[in-house]
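Here is a typical protein record:
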Amino acid sequence: MHKFILIPDSFKGTMSSSEICAVMEQAIRRHVPAAQVYGVPVADGGEGSVDAFLGAVGGEKVDARVQGPWGEDVDAFYGVLPGGVAVIEMAAAAGLPLVGERRSAEQTTTYGVGQLMRLALERGCKKIIMGLGGSATNDGGCGAAAAMGAVFRDDCGQAFVPVGATLSRIDSIDLSGMPKELAGVEIVAMCDIDNPLCGELGAAHVFGPQKGADPAMVELLDAGLAHMAGIVKKDLGRDILSLHGAGAAGGMGGGMVAYFGAQLQMGIETVLDTVGFDALLDGADMVFSGEGKIDFQSLLGKVVIGVARRTKRAGVPLIAVVGDIGDNIDAAYEAGVSAIFSINRVAVPYQQARTRAKNDLALTMDNLMRFFTRMGL
C-alpha cells in the first residue's frame, strides 16, 4: 500500500495548512484510492497553532477565562495533546486582535499567557509548547512570569507587575514563588525569528511600531528590555541580552528562557518532533510540502527546508508545491528537496493568483499524481 505524508505551511492570506492538506489528499485519492495519506497541518506559533496541532495528532481544546492584554477578562483556550502536552498560543491571551485599534506596546501585558500556563500545569501537563507570534505586548514576558508567581520589585521594595513602560523600574526578581511542579515540565517556545532582545534589530525597534509605539516610545521600550536583561543576569544568572530569538513577541522569547528555562526552537522542528515525524516517514513513498513562496528566506529553516532535512536523512523524496518560486534557491535541493512546482499555472500577479489558488493547487497535484501513477509508483 502506498503511503503519502502531507506537511505544507499555509499560503499566507490564501489557504491554511489544513485546507492545503485537504486539497492534496483529494488529488492523491483520485489516482491512488487505497493510499495511506497522513496530513500534518503546520502553524508558525501564531493564531491557529493549537488547531493545527490538534488536527495533526488529536487531543482536546480547553476553554479558559484569563486576563487579556489590557487586563480585562477575555475568553481564551489552550490545547492538550496525547501524552499530556499542552499547546498555548500567546496570541490567545495577548494578541493584536484582542486590542483592535487600541494598540499600546508600553501598557499591554502577557499576564493572561501565564494564567494559561498555570492552568496547563494544574491539569497535569508535563510539557508545554508555547507559540510566540502575533503579540500586542512588549513586556519581555514579565506579565506571564508574574501570573506564575514571580515577584518583581522596584528600588523601594514594592512588588509590581511590569509592562513595557515600567521595565526600567525593576530592581529585583524573585522566582521562589513559582509552582514547584514547573521544575519537572519541559517547555519549548516556537520561535521562527532570531532577533535579539535589544538594539536596532530588537523587539522594540522592529516590532514596536506595529504595536502602537512611536519613535520615542520605541527607545523607552528598548531601554526597558535592556534593563530587564541586566536584572535577569544579576538575579537569575541567565544572559538573554545576546540570545538569538530573545526579541520574539515583544521580548517574550527572552522571558521564556529567563523565567521558565524554556528552549527556543524553530516552529517546524517543534512540529516535527511533536507529531513523531521521523517515525511517520517509515515506509513513506512521498512527502508533499509547500509554502506561499520559496525563496532565500525559506533557506533559513522554514517549513519546506526543515522537512527536507528530515526526509533527506530518511531517503524519502520530497516535492515542494508552492505559490511562487524565487531566484537562487539551489540550496533547497542540497537540503533535500527533490523538486519544486509552482501552482501559478497562468503566471498572473499575486492578487489574481490568490483568487484561483485552491483550484490551481488541485490541478497541479492532479498533474503530479498523473505523472507518478504513469511511472508506476
User: Anything to note?
Assistant: DSSP finds 14 helices and 16 strands in the chain. The radius of gyration is 22 Å. The domain at 49-267 is CATH 3.90.1510.10 (Glycerate kinase, domain 2). The longest strand covers residues 73-81.
